Amino acid sequence: MSNQPAATPRYFPVTLRLDDARVVVVGGGEVAARKIRLLLRAGPQIEVLALALNPELEQWCRDGVVRHRAATFDAACLDGARLVIAATDDRALNRQVAAEARARNIPVNVVDDPEPSTFITPAIIDRAPLTVAISSGGAAPVVARRLRERLEAELPQAYGALARYTQHRRDRVKTALEGPARRALWERFLDSPGAEAVLRGDEAAADVVLDQLLADVRPLGEVYLVGAGPGDPDLLTFRALRLMQQADVVLYDRLIGPGILDLVRRDAERIFVGKRRNQHTVPQDEINEELVRLARQGKRVLRLKGGDPFVFGRGGEEIERLAQAGIPFQVVPGITAASGCSTYAGIPLTHRDYAQACIFVTGHPRADGQLTLPWDALARPGQTIAIYMGLGSLPMLSAELMAHGLPGDWPAALIVEGTQATQRVIASTLAALPGEVAAAEIKGASLVIVGEVVKLRDRLAWR
Asked: Which of 337, 345, 330, 307 is nearest to 427 (CA)?
C-alpha cells in the first residue's frame, strides 16, 4: 500500500531528449508561444495546430521555426507525436486533447491544468548544457518560479561553460585515472582556481590547473580582491557573493558592514586586518605579503574591502604585489561610498541645475597633519565634492574651502554609516557643519559631501 496521500500526485523528474522529435502544440495564442519558447531550446520539430496565430507565432512560421496547421483539432493529428501541449483558452478542448494523447500513450501537458496532464513543465534555469528544473507538481507554480528567480541570481551564466569544459576533457581524465580517482580529481578541480578560470573565460589557465592536478601537484591558490560596497549587504554583486562563498580564508577591514561577513563561507578562516585613523592594525606591506603567503599554500584568499577596492582602497598596491609574485588574482568592483551613501541619503552627486561634475578626494591628512588638496580646483560652484575619510579633518576641510572662495553658507553634509539601518545624515553648511558634527559626537565610517546638491535632500531623501 502506498504511503503517499492520494490527493497529492507525485512526479518523477526526467530530462527528455527531443531533438528532431515531432511535438504538437494545440493553440495559437500567447500561452502556446510561451511554451514553444521553452521547447525550441531542445530542438524538436514543432507543429502548431490552430485556426489563427498571434504575431510572434506567425513570424516563427514565416521563418520556418515552426510549422502551422490551420485547422480545428482532429485526434489523428497526434499520431506519431513524441509530445503534446494543449494550450488553448478552451478548457474542454484542452481536456479532449489530453484524453486523445493519453489514449495513444503520448506524454501531454495541459497548460494551467495539471489533473489531465501526464507531465508538467518545471521552472527552468538554463545554463546549457546544464539545466536546473524546479517543480511543485503543479501545486504551487508561483512558488517554483520565485525559487527559480532566486537561483537565477546565484548561478552565473558561465556555469554552462564550466559544464562544457569538463565534458570536453572527460576522455583525457578517463584515460589517466580510474573511476574513484576521476571523481576525486574533478571535485578538486571544481574547488580550485581552475574552475574560476573557466567561469571568467580563461580555459588556458584552467588547463594549467588541470595538468597540475593530473600530475598530483597542488595548484597555486588565487586571491579575490572584492569590493563589499558601503555597508548594505544587498548592494553586493552576484560575482562578489559567489567568490565569498568559495574562499578558504578572508582578510577583511573595519569598513565591512554588519551582515556582510555572515555571507562568507562559514568554515573560511577570518583574519582582521582593519585600519583606523592613526592606528594601523596591520601595515599595508604585511597585508600584501600575507596575501602572497596564503595563495602560495594553495588557498583561495578573499581580500574583502569596504566600498570599491580601487577608490581609496589601496587595491592597486595589493594586486601590484600579487602580479610581481605571479599569484593569480581577480578584482570585483564594489559600489563606492560616494555613490551608495549619497543615494541612500537622497543627495544626487550630479544634477542638471546644481552640479555638472563630481570630484572624489580623500580627507585623510599626511603624517605631519597637513591636508594637501587642490583647493582652488575644489572651491568652485557647479560641482560636487565627495570627501572620503573626512571626519577627523572636517574643520580643516571647511576652513580651506571657505578660504579659497566658497561661502560659509555653502551646502555641506556628513553621512555616517551610510546605506545601513543606522545611517545618519547631518545636512548643514560649510561654516556650521564641523560644530554640529562635534556636538553630535559622531563616530564611525563617514562621507562628507559639499555642493548645492545637498539642498535636494529634503525633497529626495527616501530613507
From this structure: 345
Mapping DSSP to helix (H, G, I), strand (E, B) and coil, where does residue 362 land?
A: strand
Q: Are residues 228 and 294 in the same domain?
A: yes
Phi, psi angles (nearest 5°) of residue 293: -60, -45
Note whether residue 399 is domain-resident. yes
Set 113, 126, 207, 275: catalytic member: 275
User: Is residue 153, in this structure, part of any structural domain at all?
Assistant: no
Domain holding 239, by residue range, is: 220-335
d(Cα 137, Cα 243) in Å, to the nearest integer?
34
**Based on the structure, what is the number of domains in the chain?**
3
Q: Which three cell numbers stand for residue 71?
A: 485547422
Q: What is the pTM of this model?
A: 0.67
- Count other C-beta atoms under 10 Å from residue 96's C-beta: 17
Tell me which of 277, 307, 335 is where a domain ends.
335
pLDDT per residue, tens digit, the chain (463 aa), is 445 444 556 788 888 999 989 999 999 999 999 999 999 989 999 999 999 999 999 999 999 999 999 999 999 999 999 999 999 999 999 999 999 999 999 999 999 898 999 998 888 888 888 888 888 877 788 888 888 888 887 787 888 999 999 999 999 999 998 777 888 789 889 888 899 899 889 999 999 999 999 988 777 889 999 999 999 999 999 899 989 988 989 999 888 877 999 999 888 999 999 765 555 568 899 999 999 999 998 888 999 999 999 999 899 999 999 999 999 999 999 999 999 999 999 999 999 999 999 999 999 887 777 888 999 999 999 999 999 999 999 999 999 999 999 999 999 999 999 999 999 999 999 999 999 999 999 988 899 999 999 999 988 877 6
Same domain, 225 and 318: yes
- Which among 35, 232, 248, 253 is annotated as catalytic? 253
Tell which residue, 36, 22, 27, has the closest CA to residue 96: 27
Q: What is the CATH number of the domain that holds 362?
A: 3.30.950.10
Annotated catalytic, 299?
no
357 in the same domain as 323: no
Told to judge if 35 belongs to the known catalytic residues of this protein, a careful annotator would answer: no
